Amino acid sequence: MRRIISAVARDVTPSKAAQDMGRKTADEMLDMVRKVTAGLPQVTDVQLGGSLAKGTWLSEDADVDIFVGFKRSVSKERFEETARQIGFESLNGYSPYVKYSEHPYVEARVRKTRVNVVPYYDVKQGEWKSSADRSPYHTRLMKKSLTTKMRGEVRVLKAFLKANGIYGAEIARQGFSGYVAEVLVLNFKSFEGVVRNMAGIGRNTTIGRAEKKFDGMIIITDPVDGKRNLAAAISERNLGRFVLLCRAFAARPSADFFKKRRPRVSKRLWDDMLVVSFGFRERSPDIIWGQAKRIAFSLSRQLELGGFVVLRSKAHVGEKAHLFFLLESGCIPLLYQKDGPEFFRQGSSEKFIGKNRRDLKLVWIKDDGRITSLRERRHPDAVGFMKWFLKNNIQSDIPSGLQDDFVRGFKVSMGSGGLGKSIKEAADELISTDGAFLHFD
Amino acid sequence: MRRIISAVARDVTPSKAAQDMGRKTADEMLDMVRKVTAGLPQVTDVQLGGSLAKGTWLSEDADVDIFVGFKRSVSKERFEETARQIGFESLNGYSPYVKYSEHPYVEARVRKTRVNVVPYYDVKQGEWKSSADRSPYHTRLMKKSLTTKMRGEVRVLKAFLKANGIYGAEIARQGFSGYVAEVLVLNFKSFEGVVRNMAGIGRNTTIGRAEKKFDGMIIITDPVDGKRNLAAAISERNLGRFVLLCRAFAARPSADFFKKRRPRVSKRLWDDMLVVSFGFRERSPDIIWGQAKRIAFSLSRQLELGGFVVLRSKAHVGEKAHLFFLLESGCIPLLYQKDGPEFFRQGSSEKFIGKNRRDLKLVWIKDDGRITSLRERRHPDAVGFMKWFLKNNIQSDIPSGLQDDFVRGFKVSMGSGGLGKSIKEAADELISTDGAFLHFD
Q1: Which A-chain residues 213-252 have CB contacts (< 8 A) with chain B?
Q2: Could you tell me the sign of the dihedral formed by the alpha carbons of A211, A214, A217, A220, in that order?
Q3: Count: domains in chain B
Q4: Between B244, B354, B440, which is nearest A354 by CB?
Q5: Residues B359 and B390 placed together within one structural domain of the fold
Q6: The domain containing residue B72 runs over which residues?
Q7: Per-residue pLDDT reduced to its tens digit, A190-222
Q8: In terms of domains, do A248 and A339 share one?
């Protein structure tokens, strides 16, 4: 294992030239931002953050994160607005644009490097006002605690996560952030330590020191905030994939774990894939992704109530939003059994019989004394069901934030016909076996 | 209600001529049996039993039941053998044959009347040795307790049960015996009393005096044996039908309740009817019916385990035995989801993955942390599944009493093709709405 890890470490550590280059861009940008903020009384500090500051960046991911500290007395509105002005002014020559996390921030491409100008409140530990406020503490902690050796280990871990598609905290992915990788190495000292510990981890294990009780399969506390569970942003599925990957790697270490694998896609399952798509008015990715995921979840439940078996579902947000539902079958039997009350319950059993006698196929008494009936479904096909449901339940069952979008229109279809390449690739995940399992062959 | 009941009572009470005729046949047969048993030291008594003795017989059901009492010291073997000889000798001129209840007895048709010669042990109340031992006590009790008026009420109740297909205690029907009808009238004084009480009955009600705790939806104790629940021989379904009929009749009394109704059959449901048939070596009806019902129940469970939805099932015994299974669909989706362990459980999750990777369609981790897979069914059609199951599981899953019969052969098919008229009619029950419900229209 050591040999493989060393080889990977060499691969993923940026060359001297790249390091100089990154440092140069960072210094240049820092100067710019400092110049722009000079004399602004509400700005307390400008500092380099992120993996570049902590020395844990991968060759190919040289993001420059510049953090601009604000006095805690500044209102959220002025905080956002001032930060935006600072960002645009600083990155003026590089076609800057706005991106969204909890708060908007400004980004630009400077040569091949992505540069972000991110505001935070310069507050005491624990008195957080915005989610970026912890970042300077993270930077300080890692600069102080990670040895050069450990920085290399963080890089190896990031490469491992990345190759297996579970690197990145964005809501679209719900994977492991760079900071989580650093925290894991800080806890377990090395990549191998992380692998061995995660391979043997049990349910409800807490990594780090917790200052409260957390729900969750695995808890990873933030070293600068024991009230925060870093694993909460990681999906259960990705936690599981990571644990399985660690087990497989511990059992049979190989350089293959650091190479992207093409997933094995069962194309013919596309026949049973229900697709709902809708356009939406511009909003922050976190918002629309959250909404799309929620509605995918709630429509899954509706499909189940309608008699369909939903094997997997997912949301994907691009130009439009797409919801994918892999069904056991797109067509289900026309007739289904609907149980009623026990025959002893006079009022309700008469109501049940009366109701069922109208569009009745069959009514009988079961061995457990319940009256039961055979009814005809209105929509034994998934497309018909979903169209009917969405047309009639926008008000009651669509999250209010999406109602206007659905009123404006939506599409329901079965299979991959008419979908663009990137959309199909997003849905392919549902009909592919997780890479984590391929190592068990 | 009174007017309708009176009219029915007139209809179902045998005419003077019929009564004389019945009495004459009974006396004649009693004489015969007495002659044959005269001088047999083990025989203690010969008496008329059944509805004729109690004066509760319906015009069309003039059975003559002659009970032959044996000393309790007689062994079961001699009891059966002697009774058989007595029966055959007594009914000599009328082509007698053997029938089976708990013990064999001899029956013959004398003119248009069915005559049974049934042995019992002449024991004290409560010291029962065979199930027929209570009969003389029943006869004595009813002769003593039922007034002429009440006998008429019993006849009306029997006619009500009969018209609605729930009269008869035989295992094929699991309905209400004549004795249960008498006991109900004894408890509630009149047909109307029975109807009103049964219409409002609650779960776990006990009718009569119980000497122990019984399980069951409704308990009807035997007045001559408080340890016996007469309702145990009645199916839950028939209890329910009776209660519903009583409610409907109480709400809208009508002579229609005393007329047989043609059930409304949903013929097209035959398409989803799985039929298993097999021949069997001669045995008593109670035995083969019990076996057929048990195997129908156990094969229903197997079908469910195989992914099929069994709506209703039933057994029918004629020349051959037939098992009917009304399915939601005879064909189910080829792929199905099979859940495995949580990813935390190292050993079992690796076993699950390994097993599923071979004939794998898809493996993934669910949001609850369980590993799950998509598998292909070997038998997505019910006929294929059942043939496969029966061929491979006779030893392990067929009741031992039927294994030889199944080894000799069985047939599995879908739909009504190739079935005789009486077989089809038996199965029609599964795709018909209970008559009890038709009164709610």
Answers
A1: 217, 235-237, 239-241, 243-244, 247
A2: negative
A3: 4
A4: B440
A5: no
A6: 14-132
A7: 999 999 999 999 999 999 999 999 999 999 999
A8: no
